[in-house]
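Researcher: Re-running this chain for the archive, since the previous output was lost when a drive failed. Same request as before.
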Amino acid sequence: MSKALPRILWHRPIVLALAVPCILFAAAPEPTPLKLQIVNAGVQRAEDGPFVPHDYKFLPGDYLHFEFAVSGFKISGDAYSESRQISLNYTVEVLDDKNIALAPAERGAIKDDITPEDKKWIPKRRASFLLPSYIAAGTYKVRVMVEDALVKTKASADYPFQIGGHIIHPVASLALQNFRFLRSEQDGPPLEVAAYRAGATVWARFDITGFKVGPANSVALQYGVKVLRPDGSQIFAQPEAANEKIATSYPPQFVPGVLSITTTPNLTAGEYTMVVAVHDLIGSQDRVTSYKFRVE
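Model: Regenerated structure tokens:
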């Protein structure tokens, strides 16, 4: 009687083990490249204060504060290096719509040592600027530029802000804008009806625009005033009521003017004319403008 042939047994673990080396030698994913960024940035009324809302309006002569942080920077060395550092350079500017600086720029460097405990740390910096006094209402901006000196990458961003005050319209030559008769020396909304009692003081304010700006942003203006009776005859004259000579870091967009005239108690009721004459000494321009008020 013949013997049965022996059965051959296949062991599944041996087959699976043969495939393991293929998995172990798979390529590792490339690390995500760093991207230098300006983060957590905004305009403030006070240092360390909250960021102002978009409709907030600074006034000429105010201080503006700014805060920003930087992420995505290169760290020198590797995780096993004893000394690891970052090397950043930054510039912060406040600019108008023509990219003219409102104040000197603030520049600085960030060179800090990094420890293993600083994995989530990012550097933060602050800057402060004094806004010009002779600047018109409008939209301006803070510009931040950062460079990573270790890898020569750069990042920049603009942050708009509003300045309130007087609206000044562009003009090609010397002009008076925002002329207003007032009840007192204090500035404010113009009188709806420019009417005064005999013996009262007539106050007027205005903005001089369209003048030429000289070296070092210098301006030289003279203005005078005269008053005419209802029949056109002259009752008062002061040819040189004021001389304005200024020089600022930012070219002035306007120069404010103020005049006052005290009437006599027996002045006849009627409509009078205030004539304002302005002379631009640098630009050799003259402008004469008339405004009506009443004595009742």
